UniProtKB/TrEMBL annotation:
Its main location: membrane. Belongs to the peptidase M48B family. Pfam families: Peptidase_M48. Keywords: Cell membrane, Hydrolase, Membrane, Metal-binding, Metalloprotease, Protease, Transmembrane, Transmembrane helix, Zinc. It is a multi-pass membrane protein. The chain crosses the membrane at residues 40-58, 151-174, 186-207. The keyword Hydrolase applies. InterPro entries: HtpX_protease (IPR050083), Pept_M48_protease_HtpX (IPR022919), Peptidase_M48 (IPR001915). GO terms for biological process: proteolysis. The active site is at E142. GO terms for cellular component: plasma membrane. Its EC number is 3.4.24.-. It comes from Phytoactinopolyspora halotolerans. This is Protease HtpX homolog.
Amino acid sequence: MARTRFAPDRGLTARMLVTMGLLAVLYVVLVGAISLLSGAWLLGVIIGLAVLWGQWYFSDKLALSAMGAREVSPAEDPQLHAIIDRLCAMADMPKPKVAVAHTDLPNAFAAGRSPDRAVVCVTDGLRRRVDERELEAVVSHELSHVAHRDVLVMTIASVVGVLAGFMTRAVLWSGMMGGRNNNNNAAIVALGVMLVAAVVYFVSFLLTRLLSRYRELAADRGGAILTGQPSALASALTKISGDMAKIPNKDLRAAEPYNAFFFYPAMTGKLDIASLFASHPPLEKRLAQLDKISVELGRE
């Protein structure tokens, strides 16, 4: 992680390394399968690497664009800048760019390829629902993501499934349309590539969900310890979870693809099966951890 005063989390570091290693293996398997089955792998690799580089380099801009957010200057939003200035001084870390999303969805997120190229964004909906102490707790949670560098890992990890789709389309377009196979062989190759891509997508999806749930707990811990106010973070979580149900379903559905990066997931319903693949741990688990931290801080 970056050298800051945020408490290090070896469990998170180990999970990020394992996740990135397994995703690299999946990518190699996908490329190998495409090469063996069709021979049309080069175009897929080029497209895949281009997508990966684009996601890495432009991750902050892509995230802001997806949420309709924009950067704000200290003159435009002195309160939010003051909170982030204070927390960055406490954490001894570079100040990220500051952005605001004009939506009623109560949320926040961090994006960027490094602590020096990060952005922290909060929504109008969040600021309307929490007080300054709670807002500081939420922002501290997001800064913990930046300090631990899990924002970058999640950005790269989430694109592997996208790469599987891009590379499959490239192969089906170039390899099977090139005429080197007869119709029967082309159909077999197409089916083989699609099966491998489907497996890669599912496994990468599962790995990112497992990492996402743990990194949220790690950010809760880091943010609560830095501010020394776990109760403020618990209060913000409780308010947001209660008000999320008041957001129109169409707005929640539009935001759901970005749940892995949000402070609190935008959910249109509570399905038991869907909870197995949730991007965040249950609210009860997050609150229980914050209660435990509050007790530990009280003892100290």
